[in-house]
Write a structure and sequence with these properties.
9 strands; 339 residues; two-stranded antiparallel ribbon; seven-stranded parallel beta sheet; disordered N terminus
Length: 339
């Protein structure tokens, strides 16, 4: 019986600190006082948070300013935009690409950029093809000779693919793996010893949402990005007791030449800008996200909208449902192609 009464009391009235039921003005006064007390508490928290953000921004700025930053695939798309934001933030850039003239165009574009208050540095260029492991090794030597220690390596270069597994030549699978996986692995391995010797460094890799989920007709690309995610997750763990940071960035669609430059099942160029690519995020935005992630030494960042983000979780939480959605997607795409 007593139990029933105290329960009613808890629901309809106030309990004092000793658990007894109270009536009258006192509880009203208490709630009035606590609601006023919350204001300085809230203001204090906002102040502490703002101070924390300011310190974080200053720390990020100091980390990037004057840092030696190597960017692969700097001739176009996300790589070129990363070059711009790191250049403006005062980094000493080493721009890597396959084509000297395209790299020179990027350097000219950087020179034309309006100079802010931050001191900028003249960028270096290093030309090599990521699919050639020997070339990667000599490029790493050239980089160290040019700038000494590398602070931040941004493994950005990559190529995509469209095709069915049934029709795709293994040489195409290999080519994608060479550029997207073995290239960054080789460059990272070549530069890591000097980072360790120097006592600090930061390895960044541009993976993809497709490093976390596989979608139909992207087998070679998704596989190369899954391998990339796995390798750099291992590297992060192995470097945990050093001052080497590892950041994996996994973007969704970006408005670049990726789909235009993608290869098909026989290795020929796809040559089309897909609707998803054209409607993707701007490379400028994504480059800003990369800059912030590096400054804040984030371990990984998924740069994607609600649906791809849900898809990533769905793959783990409800794989059967995810597989069914992917099967329906494959069926629909095949039908569209054959129509
Ligand atoms: N665009 C998108 O929707 C998304 C892109 N990404 C990733 O972003 C990264 C950048 O791609 P993005 O800017 O979009 O595409 P782009 O095609 O615009 O840029 C790709 C860059 O990679 C370089 N590259 C290609 N092959 C080689 C090679 N064999 N050796 C050296 N460099 C090479 C290209 O150089 P060259 O000028 O010589 O061809 C170019 O600079 C890639 O890793 C991609 O997978 C991730 C998610 C989404
Ligand atoms: C409870 C609701 C769950 C909703 C889940 C539905 C699943 C829908 C599938 C979403 C697939 C998203 C794929 C995103 C792919 C992507 O962003 O890739 C980025 C790239 O790397 C692009 O390269 P590409 O060559 O493919 O253009």
């Amino acid at each position: 019986m007593q139990h029933t009464v105290s329960l009613e009391c808890a629901v309809t009235e106030n309990l004092n600190p000793f658990g007894r039921c109270e009536r009258g003005l006192l509880p009203l006064k208490m709630s009035f006082l606590t609601s006023w007390a919350i204001i300085p508490l809230l203001l204090g928290s906002v102040g502490v948070y703002s101070l924390y953000r300011l310190l974080q921004r200053l720390r990020s700025r100091a980390y990037i300013q004057d840092a030696v930053v190597v960017i692969t695939g700097a001739t176009s798309g996300l790589g070129k935009e990363c070059a711009k934001v790191f250049y403006a933030a005062g980094s000493q850039l080493v721009l890597c690409g396959r084509n000297e003239e395209s790299l020179e165009d990027v350097v000219r574009e950087l020179n034309r950029m309006r100079k802010g208050s931050v001191k900028t540095h003249k960028p270096h260029k290093v030309i090599f093809d990521l699919s050639d492991v020997e070339a990667v090794s000599s490029a790493a030597k050239e980089i160290v000779k040019l700038v000494g220690n590398v602070d931040i390596l941004i493994n950005n270069a990559g190529i995509s693919y469209r095709g069915t597994i049934l029709n795709t030549k293994v040489s195409v699978d290999r080519m994608i793996m060479d550029i997207n996986y073995f290239g960054p692995v080789a460059l990272t391995k070549a530069l890591l010893p000097s980072m360790i010797k120097n006592g600090r460094g930061h390895i960044v890799v541009i993976s993809s949402v497709q490093g976390k989920i596989s979608i139909p007709f992207r087998s070679a690309y998704a596989a190369s990005k899954h391998a990339t995610q796995a390798f750099f997750d291992c590297l992060r763990a192995e470097m945990a007791d050093t001052d080497i940071n590892v950041t994996v960035i996994s973007p969704g669609y970006i408005q670049t030449n990726l789909s235009m430059n993608a290869v098909t099942d026989d290795g020929s160029k796809y040559g089309v800008t897909d609707k998803n690519t054209a409607e993707g995020r701007s490379p400028e935005d994504v480059a800003q996200i990369v800059l912030r992630a590096v400054g804040e030494r984030k371990k990984e960042v998924l740069v994607a909208g609600v649906v791809p983000t849900l898809a990533v979780y769905l793959r783990t939480i409800a794989p059967k449902l995810f597989f069914a959605i992917m099967a329906a997607r494959a069926k629909k795409e095949r039908k569209l192609k054959n129509a």
